[in-house]
Amino acid sequence: MKFISVVLVMAIAAFAMTDAAPQAGVTQPGVDTWLEEIAYFDLEGGGIPNAYTVGCGWDGTDFWITNGAGQAGGSTGMFYIFDHSGVISDSFPQNGAPGWGLRDLCCDGTYMYGSVSTAIDYYDISTHEKVGAFTGPISPNRALAYDGTHFYTSSFSTDVYQLTWDGVSGSTAANTVWSTAATSAYGAAWDALNDCLWVTSANGTGILDQIAADGSLIEHHTLISGATMGGATMAGTYPINELYVLEQGSPDGMHGYDVNPDALDRDTWGSIKSLF
Q1: Of 26, 63, 30, 28, whose CA–CA distance to 48 is shortest?
Q2: Which of 27, 49, 188, 253 could form a disulfide with 143 if both were Cys (CB 3.0 to 4.6 A apart)?
Q3: Domain that holds residue 19
Q4: How many Cα atoms within 13 Å fall on the side-chain side of residue 101?
Q5: Is the distance from CB of 113 to CB of 97 less than 8 angstroms?
Q6: CATH assignment of the domain containing 106
Q7: In-domain check, residue 247
Q8: How far apart are CA 272 and CA 7, in angstroms?
Q9: pLDDT band per the 50, 70, 90 thresholds, residue 211
Q10: Of 163, 245, 240, which Cα lies nearest the Cα of 199?
């Protein structure tokens, strides 16, 4: 009896970003066919007063967007809260985070985590108050994602670290280099549906990396040609199949993409192998 196995390989490529003033990106995305852009909203026109947005996270209901108010003469970075349709509802300080403030965000359902210098601060998603912090492996810990057990971080590098935190504020998370497959990491989002990590780049390539659960590269994709990208997050309702990427463009904006594996089109499989 012959057993036929079809291996499907999907991908998206790497993140990176510079901490100079955000570069203008391309506002019309050149998206891989199986990725459909399902949402876009203008962060600057939507209520953020300057072009210094860097990170994003989803708390189960709303997006949290970070903004380096210190780059525009402010004393601290800010959080801005947007609903799923891109309407702003609140803003509040990042507890004194200077300069670029918290780079990228991720959420465990109770706390929103944000990376600043070597620290990873965390905030109560209900009260918006800072609760504590722990120490990561690099300075700054730019990209940030959480898979339900481990955190992931990187900083303008091909190396992605996997962190194991003991839950104690003030402690240092154990870490290991989990993957070297990123392009030049700035933002990250763990995709439970596809069991992979998406990583954005801010090096002006518009590359988004998709990295498998074992740390191996699935594929590099050009998500928005020439774009400089910041943070990334998964969003929506269960099963969560929406990937949002912050673009540092003119204006800064959030792009949402459908990453439902069932949406893969036959003509876009490309390098899929059939094993007999």
Answers
A1: 63
A2: 188
A3: 5-265
A4: 30
A5: no
A6: 2.120.10.30
A7: yes
A8: 7
A9: very high
A10: 245
